[in-house]
Each structure stands twice: as C-alpha cells, then as structure tokens.
Amino acid sequence: MTTELTAIGRRSTHDYKQRPDLNALVLPPHLELDHPLVHTPSFRHAASAMAGLLARNKIGLIDGPPGTGKSTFAQWAAEQSDRPSAIAVMPEDPRPLDLLRISITAVTGHNPTGSNKTEMEAELAEALGEWQGLLVLDEVQNVRIKGLTEARYIHDITRPRFPLLLVGYGAMATVRENTPLDSRIRLRRTFRTLSGQDLFDTVRTIDDRLATVPDDVIRYADDKFARGNLRQWVDLIETLQDWNVTAPTRTDFDDAIVSIDEEAAA
C-alpha cells in the first residue's frame, strides 16, 4: 500500500502497516506437491465425508496442529470437486473486513468494488450465489469469532448455494463458542500427528526407497526431530533425497536433522 499524507501532513492511521496483496492470500485450488500425496488416517477420515458436504452445500471444519496436512487436504478437496473452487487464506493480523476482501478476490479474481461492510457482503453473496463453488477459508483461527460469524452469515444469506470449508488450528474451540455456527457444521474433523504403524506407513509412502529402513530407525528420527509431524517428515526426507541417500541410517538422519535445525540435534 502506498503511503498517503493527510491535509495536515500526517500519515493516515490505515497506512502504518503494509498490507499483503490480496492475490497473495489466494491459494491455487489444486495440489502442487514435490512428493506423493499421503493419505494419512486423518486425511482418509475427512475425505470420506466430503461428498455429503459438497452435495448439500454444508459447512465443514478441519482443525489440527500445524504440519498435519490440513491445507494439503483443503487443496485436494478443491481439486477433486466437480464444481468451481477457491481457497482464501486469512492473514495473521486481519483487519475487520479482510475476510470479505480476500473471499471476494478468491471467488471473482479481482479486488472488491464495495467500499464498506454492507456493500462487500452484498458483492460476495451475489458472487457466491452465481458461482456456487466450494469456498475454503484457511487459517480461520486468525479471524476469531467475529470473522467466523461473518462467514456463517454469508453462507446463510445465499440460502445456501455453496459449500464452505473452514480450516485452522484451534478453530474447533472458537466455533464451539458460536452456537449458530456450531449448529451448522456438517463435517467436523481433527487432523492429528502420526504414531505407530501409521507413522511407518506414511514415511514409506512419501518415499518408497525407505521401504527397507527398519522401524526402529524411523522411530529414532521421529523421536529426535519430526515427532509425528507430516511436514517435518517431508522436510527430512527431501533433505535425504537431495543427498541421494536411498537407505538412510541413524547417522544419515542425524546429519539431515542438523542441516535443518542444529538445535534439534543437540
């Protein structure tokens, strides 16, 4: 945002913080992975309920810690949908109307034409009613109850003509505090960290060259670094791939961990 000066020469209060480009907060509604798509138990559990949400234009909620595959699932769901889809990512420190602004940009491909809340609500509702696609709102924990209430209101006033998927860490607890929204959730899933046989199967799915690596070696690397986090495991395996390590040992994992995070190896 360019800085504008008021008549008395002071910076406008709206210009103290640089705001991100709205288009930068719209994810592509398709996967862009450098590794095979991993169908973890959390992924499969959520995928099994998506058909009903899409068919009946309901609201879904995906919660879980960072790095467990929530956003990847959202992109997969958008890609698999037989209707238009868009993914809007909420910024860490959103302004009051950012949910409307970013959603309009995600759905229409251009910035809002409305200048206030009422005009933007009408613009988004009209666009969604015509579009009738899957709208994914990612990182919704950032907009808190007020933003989630806005999302529920927009869904309601379209009567509803589009499915809505809310994704974010801690969003489940926030939604529980909003009875009108909580009562409208059709799909409610929590993505969890990996453990036990699910951990071994997932790691070997990411890179089948690890098929011969013993369980105790995988468990060693998990205890020392990844701790069941899917994103951490992808980082670890990609590092080994960069080094052309095909059957990593504990020492190989130690070296990869140090290259990623020297403190984690201490």
Quick take:
This protein is an alpha/beta fold and 266 residues long. Helices cover 46% and strands 10% of the residues. Strand 4, helix 6 and strand 5 form a beta-alpha-beta unit.
Give structural attributes:
12 helices, 6-stranded mixed sheet, alpha/beta, disordered N terminus, 266 residues, single chain
Kindly, what is the distance between the CA atoms of the first and last residues, rounded to a whole number of angstroms? 43 Å
Sequence of strands across the biggest β-sheet: 1-3-4-5-2-6
Percentage of β-strand residues: 5-15%
Tell me the number of strands. 6
Q: State Rg.
A: 21 Å
Poorly predicted parts: 1-17
Quick one: biggest sheet? 6 strands, mixed
Mean pLDDT across the residues is 89
Task: Indicate the percent of residues in helices.
Answer: 40-55%
Shape: elongated
SSE sequence, one letter per element: EHHEHEHHEHEHHEHHHH
Structure classification: alpha/beta
Give the count of helical stretches.
12
Write the SSE topology.
Blueprint: E1 26-27, H1 41-47, H2 50-56, E2 59-63, H3 70-80, E3 85-89, H4 98-108, H5 117-131, E4 134-138, H6 144-157, E5 164-167, H7 171-176, H8 179-182, E6 185-190, H9 196-206, H10 215-226, H11 230-242, H12 250-260
Parallel strand pairs: 2-5, 2-6, 3-4, 4-5
Antiparallel strand pairs: 1-3
What report would you give on this structure?
The chain has a six-stranded mixed beta sheet, with helices on both faces. The protein has 266 residues and is α/β, with parallel strands linked by helices. The chain contains twelve helices and six strands. The chain has helices spanning 41-47, 50-56, 70-80, 98-108, 117-131, 144-157, 171-176, 179-182, 196-206, 215-226, 230-242, 250-260, and strands spanning 26-27, 59-63, 85-89, 134-138, 164-167, 185-190. Strand 4 (134-138), helix 6 (144-157) and strand 5 (164-167) form a beta-alpha-beta unit.
